[in-house]
Design goal:
The longest helix is centred in the first third of the chain and has 14 residues. By secondary structure, the protein is mainly beta. The chain starts with a helix and ends with a strand. The protein has a domain of 106 residues: Immunoglobulin-like (Sandwich), CATH 2.60.40. It is built from four helices and 39 strands. The strands form ten sheets. A five-stranded mixed beta sheet has the order 28-32-31-30-29, with no helix packed on it. The protein has a four-stranded antiparallel beta sheet with strand order 3-2-5-6, with no helix packed on it. Strands 11-39-38-37 form a four-stranded antiparallel beta sheet, with no helix packed on it.
């Protein structure tokens, strides 16, 4: 009965002129023309086209992965697995690397169940800027990939780590498994301790001059300091073990000197200058209000020759000598500069043009500058038997000399010919070892803000020349200069200004330590060629600039809490620092 019904339907159909669809026609009804737009940077990966049923089940219809040979758009005509008379829904997915990789883009297309099936368009937002087959791994994306840097093809999961300071395989570690090399700036065979990642390289040390396979050096700007260093008496951690001068006898440490006369009355005075004899003792300190004191030998207490301290006064609980009343001022002078000869006599220059010479027992000579110009710099020479010459710099831009026969005859200092700069305020002075040599003068030029500068004066040719500071972008004063006028020299000034001599009249500016903007007040050259610098901020500190123009971390003052104004050092490396109510010494018992 059922079979005869089927034939009946067929016969009726023939009689009515209707044909049975051909197999090709049936397939055409199941084809869904599709154009898929994707970026041309997507050259490695996989695009799948799947049909999705009403229940959510999917069947993969087509897969394409040969994008290296294609250009967008991708045109397909996938064949439905069933004849969906009520319409069809296609899901298009892009995958990272292979068809099993992460889904990195997705699109959907719906076709009607009846009528012609026109080509549909779908656009896939695929992000592979570096064309390495790994998509951008940014978390903000709806379909993130696994590429940790989509702008660099040398970084992607699975890549081999190479020596390039990049995380090539996106595992969060740089150059893992490769020998790391560290900069060795001072050439002592040890790289800088705590070297930053950006400056670490890798490979064979023999092929990378200036790099080593360790980072043990706590002071990579100073070849005298390393993990293999030998501790010496210098207040520096020479062997990078975190301790200073350990295991050796140095006669003391770097600390404040608290002798009775230095701290009394009322915590001491404002000390502006310190100087010692060539042998190291005596050492003299002087300052505001005519204050003057001397330590005549190692282990002794300071004696007081300050104005107003009369003989027999100032009993001290620490055994300091009683005052003698043999002072060198009327109390209206602030001593700014000092020099000590081989006999231990101190030569003093100060405000209001005051000059004095004290021999440690009494004030031998006193004189005033011709126009009462404040003396701000002083250097002395012993040029023969009983002949001494002192060169002076004054705040009004003058250079003078004062010899034995001048002060013994009560004569004033004499102007150096052509040594005056009427547009500058001099602040400090150094000279060669010979009286007939070259002087360097620190100064401020210009108006109230001013510009730091250095002058060079040839005493033989009477020639004054301004040095070339490159650059000179800091306003304020150059406060001091140290070293040699014919060799290594350093000048320091306001706002962290530091310059070192290069050659001829050329100087170069050295950036201050990170974050330091204090006004540097004084500088001295060490026997080893480094420069020791102090500043006059409320927490004045000691800093060391190595001869390689790098900043060292030691030595440092303990508990700095006062402005500092001067530093001096002997040929043996013993040094003194003075400031407001503070005198520091190394080595102090």
């Amino acid at each position: 009965m059922k079979r005869s019904g089927t034939w009946f339907v067929a016969a009726v159909s023939l009689l009515m002129g209707c044909g049975v669809p051909s197999p090709e026609g049936v397939l055409d009804r199941r084809r869904l023309p599709l154009a898929i737009e994707y970026p041309d940077s997507y050259t490695v990966g996989c695009i799948q086209v799947s049909e999705q049923s009403g229940s959510g089940a999917t069947v993969v219809l087509e897969t394409v992965s040969d994008f290296g040979a294609r250009t967008p758009p991708l045109r397909l005509s996938p064949l439905l697995s069933l004849d969906w008379s009520e319409g069809a829904k296609l899901v298009i997915t892009a995958h990272e690397q292979t068809c099993d990789g992460n889904v990195v883009a997705r699109g959907e297309v719906e076709y009607p169940g009846m009528g012609p099936r026109y080509e549909h368009d779908v656009s896939l937002a695929i992000h592979d800027a570096d064309r390495d087959g790994y998509m951008d791994g940014a978390r903000a994306r709806e379909f993130p990939g696994t590429d940790c840097d989509d702008a660099v093809a040398a970084r992607a999961p699975g890549l081999k780590e190479v020596c390039d300071s990049l995380d090539n395989n996106c595992d969060g570690v740089v150059n893992e498994g490769l020998p790391a090399l560290y900069r060795d700036m001072d050439g002592d065979g040890e790289g800088a301790l705590g070297e930053t990642e950006a400056s670490i390289v890798c490979g064979d040390p023999a092929s990378r001059p200036g790099y080593v396979a360790n980072h043990l050096d706590c002071e990579d700007g100073d070849p005298k300091v390393s993990k293999a260093g030998i501790e010496i008496c210098d207040a520096i951690d020479n062997d990078c073990d975190g301790a200073v001068d350990e295991g050796i006898t140095c006669g003391g440490t770097l600390k404040e000197v608290t002798d009775y006369h230095l701290k009394n009355p009322a915590g001491g005075g404002v000390w502006k200058t310190v100087a010692s004899a060539p042998s190291g003792y005596p050492v003299w300190v002087a300052g505001e209000g005519g204050r003057l004191m001397v330590r005549k030998a190692r282990g002794m207490k300071f004696e007081n020759f300050s104005y107003g301290v009369e003989a027999g006064t100032s009993d001290s609980p620490d055994g300091s000598p009683r005052a003698t009343g043999k002072y060198c001022s009327d109390g209206n002078v602030d001593w700014n500069a000092a020099w000590v000869d081989s006999e231990g006599w101190v030569y003093l220059g100060g405000s209001n043009g005051q000059l004095a010479i004290h021999d440690g027992q009494t004030c031998r000579y006193q004189k005033t500058m011709p126009q009462r110009q404040s003396v701000v710099g002083m250097v002395g020479y012993e040029v023969g038997v009983d002949v001494t010459s002192v060169h002076l710099a004054t705040a009004d831009g003058g250079l003078y000399y004062w010899r034995t026969w001048e002060w013994t005859r009560d004569n004033a200092p004499i102007d150096f010919q052509n040594g005056r700069d009427n547009f500058a305020n001099y602040t400090g002075l150094i000279g060669t070892t010979s009286e007939d040599g070259v002087l360097l003068v620190s100064m401020k030029r210009g108006g109230s803000a001013g510009q730091p500068g250095v002058m060079r004066y040839d005493t033989v040719r009477s020639l004054l020349v301004q040095e070339n500071l490159a650059p000179a972008s800091i306003q304020g004063a150059m406060n001091d200069v140290a070293g040699s006028p014919i060799g290594a020299a350093c000048a320091v000034g306001d706002s962290g200004g530091v310059w070192t001599w290069v050659s001829g009249n050329q100087w170069t500016q050295v950036p201050p330590p990170l974050g330091v903007t204090a006004d540097f007040s004084s500088v001295v050259k060490s026997p080893g060629g480094d420069f020791y610098i102090v500043d006059k901020s409320p927490q004045g500190q000691l800093r060391r600039l190595t001869k390689y123009n790098t900043w060292a971390t030691t030595p440092r003052l303990p508990d700095p809490d006062a402005p500092l104004f001067d530093i001096s050092m002997t040929t043996a490396g013993e040094f003194w620092i003075v400031g407001r109510g503070r005198v520091y010494h190394y080595p102090e018992p």
